[in-house]
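Fold these two proteins, one after the other.
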Amino acid sequence: MMLKLTDVVRLMRKSESGHASPGRPRPFTIQYVTADRTRNKGGEVRTLKRAVLLTKKRTDNRIVDLQPLGTTDIVRVHLDLILRFNNQPVA
């Protein structure tokens, strides 16, 4: 089953439930393609395992900030370049 982009964003925003960590972002796996128009580079397929969403509000440029758990890195991903979310293809 292919996920729609709206479903992907909704799932990214979901938080953990339960007693141990209520309100914490739920980690997910995401596969995307890189693109940089200013440097004319990109086309690499990358995978982030156990990442969480940092972007809280909707943005006009359709870019989200993600953070792999256990790091302080911030990875910016354009929503239209997402290929898979939690091992499901994205339409």
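Now the second one:
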Amino acid sequence: MSTENGGTPVRPDLPPPDAPPAADPVPPAVPPAEPSWRTEPPATPPTVTEPTTSRWSAEPPPPPAQPSWGSGGPGDPGSGSGGGWGSSPGGQPPASGKRGMGGVVAAVLAAALLAGGIGGGIGYWAAERGDDSTSSTPITTSGDSQKIENPPGSVAAIADKALQSVVTIEARGASDQEGGTGTGFVYDKEGHILTNNHVVASAANGGKLSATFSNGRTYNAEVVGRAQGYDVAVVKLTDAGDAKLTPLPLGDSAAIDVGDQTIAIGAPFGLSGTVTTGIISAKNRPVASGDGQGDSNSYMSAIQTDASINPGNSGGPLLDSQGRVVGINSAIQTTGSGEFGGQGGSIGLGFAIPINQARWVADTLIKTGEPVYAVIGVQVDMSYQGQGARVTDAASGADAAVTPGGPADKAGIKPGDVITKVDDTVIDSGPTLIGQLWTHRPGDEVKVTYERGGKEHTVTVTLGEFKGDR
């Protein structure tokens, strides 16, 4: 995100041509050079960062080179073979990024100091010119000053209503040495808040969580459930008896079209209540993101948007033109390392988890406290560089290449087969396969096309399930 202060000094009226020149006018203050807050991780598979407090990498295929968690939104998709997510989610629960709160605070302070410096310089110059010049006549409009009402459906009207239901989440680890800020939104009247797993991961085991509304009221919160693979989490306010909870309306992410208008709301770099706009740039974009250490990765078939999303936006809503949530902002593609906390900012490539998927995950977490994943029962070779997702030739650890008696085994899929399509979706990498499978639920039937020995085969697979994050 660029925090450039776009203010341009407003010059006072110049004196009339026949007026004597002002004595020694003080030249205008030159606004200080502003820091650039843009940059962050691409790589072979593009590095995407989560708009919150850690560093993330998200990458359309091939398998991602481990990125860093963004504030920002299983296995190491970028190395080795045998990514366990093909058969069941792998990896340990996310170890949240160690980006401290200092990065967010520094960003806010930098913006405040720049605004104050420029404003002070302009004010002093204007006062000096006013004292020395002969006269100036301010031009005013007639009539009473009235607030312009925003028409229904306008960005301003949608934002005004939605902001009341969006919260800034602060997470602190048990040691108070890690954590950061992210975003969430009211999911129901019971006080559940929907956000990203990587936003709250640092506080999940003995840490502290708080949620601050746009009116400044802050409430404590606790984790209800987390789904590392989906990068979805539900937290609940614990002391919000006096809170006015208005759930955001949920849309249908399956009904969106490329080119549709979008509105993103969040707390980029800790700047709560920030609203940006854009369009749906693409649908079903394969994205993998992780903590950069290979032990906590997430996969999604994402909504791509050019609405500005930055570290701190993770977990915030992506709205359509009617103010309905169609996605949860989760990751961004950037160009390099940023100045604040090692994170970069928006270059117009943001990724959101489709709300249809997130809603099912959230309801499952609220009901049972643990995630459920749709699986086919194979180990995917994440080092494979060809087109498709290759089933490993040999077992990886305790997992067989093809789970005996599992969905793929029953359908006749064998080690070494290369999966090229799921239904009508082309599969070009392991992460794409996993992300596409996770748009389904256990028990769904899908058509899987694979190649073996140069020949193509298509079979029907009934998806199995895996509970929890391993």
